[in-house]
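Support request, please re-run this one:
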Amino acid sequence: MNHRTLACVTAVLFTITGCQPQPTQFAAEDEAALSGIVEATARNFTAGDMETWAQHYAHDAVFQPPNAPMVVGQANILAWGQAFPPVKDLKFSDIMVSGEGNIGYGTSSYNMAFEDMPPDHGKQLVVFRRPPGGVWAIVAVSFNSDVPVQ
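Re-run finished. Output below.
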């Protein structure tokens, strides 16, 4: 291969790879947005505002509560939340969120107090997705209690 052919092939390859869409970077604003969703969950649950809470979930989200079947879809997640016993206080701690491109994930611990039930504490794993040009939504949550089953 002569120098002229090599230069043309190299130019074509740079042009092709340069035209590929670059993945969206996961930035500090994304980390703040995901932490904000976790914190909003605590506020919404404590206030009994399940409608606002459920709006943070994608329409096809998967929700895996402890000692119960998996719940699929935003409408079913809302129904689950509305049937949940009233929460006096919910706090998350050790919140860690990260991501890459349009996928985010997070972990945290939780402490939950109820009006007429013993308190609960445990941990969760959350997966977020941001559709192109859209806002972050929860696509999967799995949480479980550290309290032994009675």
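The chain has a mean pLDDT of 89. The radius of gyration is 21 Å.
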